Amino acid sequence: MKPREPMFRVSGPGVICFALFVAAGVAGAVLLQQPAPFFAGVLIGIYCLLSIKVVRQWEKVAVLRLGKYIGLRGPGMFWIIPVVDTLTPYVDQRIRATSVSAESTLTRDTVPTSVDAIIFWLVWNAEKSLLEVADFENAILLSAQTALREAIGRHELSQMIAERETLGRELQRVLDEKTNPWGITVQSVEIRDVRIPQMLEDAMSREAQADRERRARIILGEAETQISSKFAEAAVTYNDNPIALHLRAMNMLYEAIKERGAMVVVPSSAVETMGLGGLLGTTSLAKGQS
User: Which domains does the chain have, with CATH numbers?
Assistant: First the structure.
């Protein structure tokens, strides 16, 4: 979080007026050969330097006269009475981002976790934020850290990892309810990172790997079951139709020897049973002629 700007800030117009009056006093003193114009120019210049204030477009500042609040000023240029009037710190009303973290906080399932988050907030009522809160920037930071720790304790680790957006919306709602009376609204909270101890991370990685291996074995077993059932259906078909079995054997033999240079060893019993003698002879003759 960037430091606050000081309450006393010299304005550009004030510096210009100071320089002009001092220069005019010097010129008058030279012309009149008296120091009175110089001192008068310096005094008027200092008055202008302290009186003229400029507030930028996105800022507000409160004016206190003899310690009593008289109103907000800005944006633009305005005058104050030196010594009598004082200014509060300038309030930036743009959207601001604040980073908060919760180190080693236990989740609902007692897992030590470190969480980093970013809070986007803005001051919508500068009067309330200046007069009702001593240091609203520090109050926002401390409130966000407390709310983040409480949210971590209400959720399990798996929920925090898988439902970051839900956790961010819950934090935004809790913080906005707390800061709205201060003239501050929390627009959104984004969970940037969720970290766990290295040993626990290794254990979770091994658990996930074991679970993937288990699923792979289950899928392989299901595939084997489906294949065996298909083989059983094919066996019934071949048992009732020997010609289909012979055709299947011939197709398998053709697939094995269709590549040039391939050699297949077939038991003689299989040749006699399936009547493949003529086919083998024809195939050998064709290969010899080619």
Answer: 12-92 (no CATH), 96-199 (3.30.479.30), 231-274 (no CATH)
